[in-house]
């Protein structure tokens, strides 16, 4: 991962704040807006446009296709520097039990490049029993600032491209930060495990030494309501899995072993790179 590039995008994200009012020229979503659904605004937007979403719960799946680049989606917020003041939730409940691929279950399917998201909660409401994504990220140079991502299994897919998550929250139980080719940086992110007897935060699917995939969790926190030692930092979806936790506080929900093999009789640990540096807890 090219850290200077990721750091630059992080600074760019932090320089924009949402607030309660739409910026000039934005497409407006809401009861009294130009568009009643987020998808309708996305469909109407040209590359580089800003979409402002008024407070509310939007029951829909949102798809931003390849080629629809540079969009900015901003949710109304009472505290734009934190996800705690978010007033916009986009929720849907597709899962692989519906016969869909991982990507097609995503509440947000973000396939465009240069996308930015501020102060929006993305929820997959399916729950236990199948893969069900809140986010499917396939585009390059995407940023998520003060957003929440809620699910159970496979909450956030960083599949391809570079993705930055800043001051956000991600919750789940099984492999809930995962992907095969994505390069993702998580900065000041609250990782929250849901109550389960056993769980894994990351499942990076890097499959070769030439695959650029790398997940870095930096200056973040890990906690939740699960029993002590019930969760592992990750397990290798593929044999070259690469993840680092650094400068991060961890509660007792994390097992002292740290990491786990993929499954009994299928370790996939021969070429993994798992790092921990200057963490606490």
Biggest sheet descriptor: 10 strands, parallel
* Chain oligomer state: single chain
Structural class: mainly beta
Query: In the CATH hierarchy, what is the class?
Result: Mainly Beta
Q: How many domains make up the coordinates?
A: 1
Helix content: under 10%
**Amino-to-carboxy terminus distance:** 26 Å
- Unreliably modeled segments: 1-5
Provide the β-strand percentage band.
Answer: 35-45%
Architecture overview:
- This protein has 281 residues and is mainly β.
- The chain has one domain (3-222): Single-stranded right-handed beta-helix, Pectin lyase-like (Pectate Lyase C-like, 3 Solenoid), CATH 2.160.20.
- It has helices at residues 3-14, 38-44; strands spanning 27-29, 50-53, 56-59, 62-64, 72-75, 88-92, 108-110, 116-118, 121-124, 135-137, 142-145, 148-150, 156-158, 162-166, 169-172, 174-179, 183-187, 190-193, 199-204, 214-218, 221-224, 231-234, 242-246, 249-250, 273-277.
- The strands form three sheets. The chain has a ten-stranded parallel β-sheet with strand order 1-2-5-8-11-14-17-20-23-25, with helices on both faces. Strands 3-6-9-12-15-18-21-24 form an eight-stranded parallel β-sheet, with no helix packed on it. A seven-stranded parallel β-sheet has the order 4-7-10-13-16-19-22.
- 51% of the residues are buried.
- The model is unreliable at 1-5 (pLDDT under 50).
- Its EC number is 3.1.1.11.
